[in-house]
Specification:
Length: 159
């Protein structure tokens, strides 16, 4: 009986996140990702348009594939960040794209075009969607002496 309950639960989670699953499948058609591995039912891929999460699918930049496969400690915070977005997707379900996904994408676009004019946009991780993902993944944002903002793990990796 236990395996059947596990399968039922996974089907329910995918149906709960159906809008993200559909967008993730469309993303797969456009970006042509390569599979990395799965962890806690989140499927990790690399593709040419990386750094995005759609429900149970997280996509990373293809240029970092070997480092991601080796689970280098320098990139683990960025893996965990997208995993945090996947956890938000499980929580918000069908509302995720409206509450987290779309605002995060708009924030990325606005920041890319206007960060030189608005100093407040300097820290990408200061936006509420990114703070939530970092909190869920156990990450903190640190400013380097060079003025860059990087992620650092506050607890052992969930991946």
């Amino acid at each position: 009986m236990k395996p059947y309950f596990h399968y039922f639960l996974q089907i329910f989670v995918w149906l709960w996140q159906l809008p993200q699953v559909v967008v993730g499948c469309l993303w797969c058609i456009v970006a042509r990702p390569r599979y990395l591995y799965s962890h806690h039912h989140v499927h990790l891929f690399t593709c040419r348009f990386g750094g995005v999460s759609f429900g149970p699918m997280a996509f990373y930049d293809e240029r970092h594939r070997t480092v991601l496969l080796s689970r280098d400690p320098r990139v683990m915070p960025y893996l965990c960040h997208e995993y945090g977005h996947s956890m938000d997707s499980r929580l918000w379900g069908p509302l995720y794209l409206l509450v987290i996904g779309a605002p995060s994408g708009v924030h990325l676009w606005v920041r890319r075009w206007f960060k030189t004019r608005w100093p407040r946009l300097e820290n990408y991780y200061d936006f509420y969607t990114e703070r939530r993902a970092n909190k869920k993944a156990g990450l903190e944002v640190v400013k380097t002496p060079a003025g860059r903002y990087i992620l650092r793990m506050t607890c052992p990796s969930k991946l």
